[in-house]
Amino acid sequence: MHLPWLRPVWRNLLADMQAGRLSHAHCICWQPELGSDRLLRQATRLLLCLQPTTKACGSCKSCLLAEAGNHPDFYSLDSVDDKVIGVDTVRDLITSLQNTANQHGAKVAWINHADRLSVTAANALLKTLEEPTVNTYFILSPRRTGLLLPTLRSRMQLHQITPPSAAEAQQWLASQLGRVLSNDEVALIQRYPHAPVSVYNWISEQKFPRDCIAELTAAWFTNAPWPQPGKADWAEWLSASELILQDLIRLKQQLPQARLRSTLLGEPAQRWLEQHNVNSDQLNQWLQSCYGIRRMLSEQSGLNGPLLLEELWSRWH
Ligand SMILES: [Zn+2]
User: Fold this and answer.
1) How far is the CA of 51 from the centre of ligand 1 (A)?
2) Nearest-CA neighbor of 164 among 9, 3, 23?
3) How many whole angstroms from 137 Cα to the centroid of ligand 1?
4) Ligand 1 centroid vs 53 CA: distance in angstroms?
5) Same domain? 171 vs 297
6) Tens digits of per-residue pLDDT, 68-112?
7) Measured in angstroms, how far is the CA atom of residue 63 from the centroid of ligand 1?
8) Based on the domain organization, do 305 and 193 belong to the same domain?
9) Does residue 260 share a domain with residue 179?
10) Residues paired with residue 108 on neighbouring β-strands, in sequence order
11) CA nearest to 22, candidates 4, 46, 40
12) Are residues 297 and 257 in the same domain?
């Protein structure tokens, strides 16, 4: 699959490597919806390859080991079940990295979901990043760079994947599928231009995400049953809640329908506002609660997202 929006990041990495000025620590966000997993894999392979050109050669011993998934100089850490990555795990990694490279090439450590590093773990890592060892590379992939400690962030080269525009995403999707898109597919990619790879997968597997805004609007304003958010999709429900509240505030301010972000908020929402006599302050307060939940869940682990969301919704009906 051809992912043109990854190209600028790849070109930078390659140019730095060829010029011999490659930084020893990189930050590439974990965004599988944009194919970041592929970028991360290719970058790791490139660093490990013993005879790289514009990509990993694919045939040296190092490439073969990496392909088989058991390269002795490749280390990876990840958060399990969104739990914090503790200091001991990071210390073990640092100790392992002090060994001589088994394949006489580079050593690469990849820390996925790096935003889950505990503060002590992040500080331990920081010390290592401040005193880099020769031919050792770190790649950190947090969900968002803003979630990392600023001191840690400042020690790395940040690579930003710029998502395609809605028009570019639509064009890309049609070319991947090799056909003209149906109206539903156009609507889907317009809804998720920042997640073209996900949209492609949904269409290929014929498994589509729930339309959270439509379901939530129906529950809120027309007495349909309230959804039950799960561990995997609570963030989408939270986004839908925020969007609806923002639109309700716009309705309260008597902005024209065309200014609303959701086309689903018509008469029923207007009627609900009148019947319940909800004012803008109240709506703003609810919106702030949504932001509060988002903040809490990004800062603390072990919180129950679905439950927090259901408690929030119970205040609205
Ligand atoms: Zn190779």
Assistant:
1) 5
2) 3
3) 17
4) 9
5) no
6) 999 999 999 999 877 899 999 999 999 999 888 888 889 999 999
7) 4
8) no
9) no
10) 74, 137
11) 46
12) yes
